[in-house]
Specification:
With about 375 residues, the protein is of the alpha+beta class. The chain is built from eight helices and 18 strands. Helix 1 runs antiparallel to helix 3. The structure holds 2-oxoglutaric acid and fe (ii) ion. 2-oxoglutaric acid binds next to strand 6, strand 12 and strand 13.
Length: about 375
């Protein structure tokens, strides 16, 4: 490919050529010259890079970049729930404010030990076979083929809480199994927002306004998650700004090496110990990581990412590239899965749940017609 923007430190000559090319593209963008004469990678840069992104990559001679499209989180005023929900899942004023102050909420209980055991067993089998949607072996998006996982995703303990933060209409665009075997590696400090980082040319998400809260990650523990087996940890309050990464170094995120730059003391991180069957809600903009598994037991979790259907997913993409995983995901079988409310925007291919895919509690809440 003409332009490989995997965040790694390249030889000086290659970086100099990239700087020259990026300066040329920056001038092109400033002059509002047509984008369509360029091949796709350059078009992606012209369309999706902000001036700040150009400044950091060029100014560092291609040794640093924003980890994602820059944005600054707007705090709603007044701080009120965005949806009416079942009273048992209602978030208090302190919880709503706490989410915006710290960037996460929970853990909350949702599933029994047996339910969690069944799901873990099912996912452990499925993850060994090529994924129905993408045709490759991946831990991503097993909800398309695992009905048990789909049932987990629409549990009202999760969805009703998320609705108060994101609004009454909610959909899942992505899920992921995180299996950290005994002795497994740490996951590096990182942040995300529109998932531009996955190929640095096109964001996976295009919200109406990047500065609003447009996404929440739900992280469900399938084993007890503790500091010993590498539970998640967050730097509270860091979800307000997207930070920069420096390329290279020893720490890595899957197959790429970088360090996230932040002034906060990593010792101030809050470990998120989560019992099995409990979940946390967090903004993936909060700086987070997870430690190595120093125990003799597996640490398994599954997460999924919730958005309102107004967010365009994989805009103008037929194949999504995740450079940090070295994987390509064909999108013809992908669809947004609507978990609550309506799709009032119709900017995505949407799949609705059938009655058999509803969690028992969601079916109960919907009443006999479900
Ligand atoms: O489960 C982990 O160790 C990391 C999870 C994570 O980074 C995420 O859910 O965004
Ligand atoms: Fe993450």
């Amino acid at each position: 490919m003409l332009l490989q923007l995997v965040p790694e430190k390249k030889p000086w000559m290659e970086r100099t050529l990239l700087v020259a090319g990026l300066c040329f593209l920056a001038v092109w963008k400033a002059l509002h010259l047509p984008r369509d004469i360029w091949p796709q990678p350059m078009r992606g840069i012209l369309k999706n890079w902000t001036w700040g992104m150009f400044r950091v990559v060029i100014g560092s001679w291609v040794t640093a970049a924003y980890i994602d499209q820059p944005c600054t989180l707007k705090v709603p005023s007044p701080m009120v729930a965005k949806a009416e929900v079942l009273p048992e899942y209602s978030l208090s004023a302190d919880e709503l404010q706490g989410f915006y102050d710290r960037g996460y909420l929970g853990p909350y209980p949702a599933f029994s030990a047996d339910e969690v055991k069944d799901l873990a067993a099912s996912l452990l089998t499925r993850r060994n076979f090529p994924n129905y949607v993408y045709g490759i072996v991946t831990d991503r998006d097993l909800h398309f083929e695992d009905e048990l996982l789909l049932k987990f995703l629409n549990h009202p303990a999760i969805i009703e809480r998320a609705a108060q933060l994101l609004g009454p209409d909610l959909a899942c665009w992505r899920s992921q199994v995180f299996l950290k075997e005994a002795g497994g590696r740490a996951i590096q400090w990182h942040q995300a927002s529109t998932y531009m980082m996955e190929d640095y040319l096109q964001p996976a998400l295009q919200p109406l306004d990047r500065n609003q809260l447009f996404q929440i990650t739900v992280w469900i523990a399938l084993d007890p998650a503790t500091v010993h087996n590498g539970c998640m940890q967050v730097l509270p309050g860091t979800h307000k700004e997207i930070r920069k990464i420096r390329f290279g170094g020893d720490d890595g995120f899957y197959q790429v090496n970088f360090n996230l730059e932040f002034q906060e003391d990593p010792k101030s991180a809050i470990p998120l110990e989560v019992p099995p069957g409990h979940f946390i809600l967090f903004s993936e903009r909060v700086i987070h990581s997870s430690g190595p598994n120093t125990s003799n037991d597996r640490r398994m979790a599954v997460n999924f990412r919730l958005i309102p259907p107004s967010v365009k997913v994989y805009p103008d993409q037929q194949v999504h590239r995740a450079m940090h995983m070295g994987q390509h995901y064909p999108l013809d079988r992908w669809a947004l899965v609507l978990l609550r409310g309506e799709d009032r925007y119709q900017v995505n291919k949407v799949r609705r749940l059938t009655a058999s895919q509803l969690s028992p509690r969601a079916a109960q809440a919907r009443g006999p017609e479900a």
